[in-house]
Amino acid sequence: MHQRPPASPSSPSPSPRPAAVRTAALASVFLGASFVLLLVLVALRWHPLLAVDGRISRATHRWAVRDHAVTHAFRLLTDWVWDPLTMRLLAGAAAVWLVWRRAAWWTALWLAVTCAAAALVQQSVKAVVARPRPVWPDPVDSARYAAFPSGHAMTATVVCGLLLWLLHRRGAGRALWWTAVAAALVSVVGVGVTRVWLGVHWASDVLGGWLAGALLVAVAVLVYEWPENERTRLPARRRG
Predict the structure, then answer these.
(1) With contact defined as beta carbons under 8 Å apart, do 192 and 150 qualify?
(2) Can you tell me where the transmembrane regions are (predicted)?
(3) Sign of the CA dihedral running 136, 142, 148, 151
(4) What percent of the chain has pLDDT over 90?
């Protein structure tokens, strides 16, 4: 058998996970451009967008008023299961687990800072755009602050996206991975549907929340995978 010659100590080590860095960078550019475009259209009150929002909201509000059981279930889901506070507590529990079981202080801090940044960005954009929420003579729910972007949709996207990335980074087993993907998809899509159904957001508010949340996840992954962070990242599980 031929033995492989030992690597030269002076040989430079390859850049860590270059594919992940490239993918995150490209996703950041695409998502950033998409969010800025939507933001401009909302701020300028572009009529075709407002018309689509209006048609969707009027239809879903009729259904919400007529179907009390579904509306009640959606209120429970949006106020308790998919509420931003619930999502942030989930991220906090994951950060505590990372420190307690893995001693991954930098990863836990990365998770916490990204969630805090999402809340700051969300409230800042709401204050700048100051988009009014839908107004109904017979509302089925109420909400505070401005409409764009949806804080529920954005927070769910950020938390689910970050946790999925960490599971992927650690090489989660097939059953755990697909269960997590299914739960994340149901949560992110479901919370958006509930916000429009309950008449507290326009459809483009939810789309803006999804785009902004996905953008923050892409930027966070780019920071996480940057070459200089090789010694501080949570190591991927080795296969073999």
Answers:
(1) yes
(2) 21-44, 107-125, 145-168, 175-198, 210-227
(3) negative
(4) 81
Check: CB of residue 213 under 8 Å from CB of residue 155.
yes
Closest CA to 90 of 155, 170, 150: 155
Q: Which position has the token pair 């070459």? A: 227
User: How many residues comprise the chain?
Assistant: 240
- Give 88-125 as a DSSP string: HHHHHHHHHHHHHHH--HHHHHHHHHHHHHHHHHHHHH
How many helices (H) and strands (E) would you count in the chain? 8, 0
Question: Which token pair is 94?
Answer: 């994951």
pLDDT of 3:
47
pTM exceeding 0.85: yes
Which of 45-49, 110-114, 157-161, 223-227 is predicted least confidently? 223-227
